Sequence to fold (444 residues):
Amino acid sequence: MDRVASIIESALDRRPLIVVSALGDTTDVLVAVLESLEAGSTDDARGRAEAIGAHHREVIDAVVAPGTHRVDARAAIDSSLERLGRLIEGMDCLGEVSPRSRDAVLSLGELMAAPLLAAALGSRGLPARAVDPREVIVTDEASEAASPEITACIERCRERVRPILDAGRVPVIGGYVGATREGVTTTLGRGGSDLTASLVARALGAESLEYWKDVDGILTADPRVVPEARPVASLSFQEAAELAFLGAKVLHPASIQPAVDAGVPVRVRNSHRVESPGTLITSKLHGGRADGPGQAVVSIACKRDQMLVNLYSTRMLGASGFLRRVFGVFEALDLSVDHIATSEVNVSVTLGETERIEDLTTRLGEVADVRVLGGMGVVSVVGDRISETPGVAARLFGALEDINVHLITYGGSGVNLSFVVAGGQVSDAVRRLHGALFEETGGA
Ligand code: ASP
Ligand code: MG
Fold:
């Protein structure tokens, strides 16, 4: 909280608006409350609710000085806790955990965090004001996965949030939570605070959007695999989206899309290291990076627990409709395919490991000879200038010299080059690629 307050304070002249997520693991504990109720253990649910209350009161005492701000924060938290108590008793009484009750419970973390942060800022002399997200984020009814109605959100932001900014105060909005037009509380899906921030940034035409996380932005590789990984200074939205799809732990592309679409530059920063500039994500394809194999790639991602499905059919020779039959099988089983490579008589695809493997093999067996390799991994290098930069492929293949590569795909978007390798060789492949791309030349 202290760190957060000083970050906000140093941004005061830029007229900041804050979107805050639940404290620590509060949302996970609320999920556990619902699980207890579903299992019929109402006492466990009560105990967990109690723990959430105790934690929030403790935080208030630690970060809000005694006085009116502390009184306000206590009142706001107590009213949410009382609501949680009533919801628990209601569900216990009905013996049912309905979708609507789930959203009502899950929303409470953010509904408590906003007044708490506003009070903490207030007691430090910063003019803050908590805003109930249910007055601002208008959504459809989908429980735990509500979609915001952008036009309505923009209108509400202008009506309810803009005046607070104009009065020189800092609005603090709980993320992740919204409401239908009828006022029913909804939630946007786990991690949804990122989407709230992006919507609000777009609605108010923000000059920039900063996500304060606990890592130095987006890194050149997963630091658990490559300790030498370092932050990427800037990348395009397309690169960020591709990285997320290929297994990197970056912001969900759908979350930042509203801001990027509106041309708001997005920055990912580290709240533990404010001096680090973090990573800038912009809508444009990037320019400005020097040409050269080490600069064309922004980051390396990997996915484990993948399957490689190889299909052979001599009937495919000159025949039409083969691919339709193959993909018809995946569609029928509701399985989505990640990478595809084809030759005259062969199609290879990768997908995440699935329990429906037997079904899949049987059905594919009706259209082709099938060979499935499980326990595979996909290692991808991402950069939207790979295709324009000579020498990248040579550098990559050189690095993977002694690794058995089962399949190579060069994404249709031209943004990623992916290699399928045995699961046990994923880390090694990532380290070698990182060494060749980022450690020899001084890199991106
Ligand atoms: N508190 C919610 C969650 O943990 C939303 C968020 O953190 O963005 O999923
Ligand atoms: Mg959270």
About this structure: The pocket of aspartic acid (ligand 1) is lined by residues 21-22, 27, 109, 175-176, 190-194 (CB under 6 Å).
